[in-house]
Amino acid sequence: MVQSVTYQSETKTVPFQGKSIVLESLTPVLSPKEKEKRKKDIERCLYEVFSKYRKAGDSPA
Asked: In percent, how much of the chain has pLDDT > 90?
């Protein structure tokens, strides 16, 4: 089953090198359960990355 995802849009106009550019940020609108699941997945992945580099930094140079 394919679940359609809706997005919340935030648009800003900002100056850059003398010109105005439009930035659009899209944030997915998720259920609280899905937000928690994604948060846990991100935390797990970050833990793996930091653990990897911590082990590499523990060895004497």
From this structure: 72
Contact 12, 22 (CB under 8 A): yes
In this predicted structure, what is the pLDDT of residue 5? 82
d(CA 34, CA 15): 36
3-state secondary structure 16-53: ECCEEEEEEEEEEECCHHHHHHHHHHHHHHHHHHHHHH
18 — alpha (psi -120 to 50), left (phi > 0) or beta? left
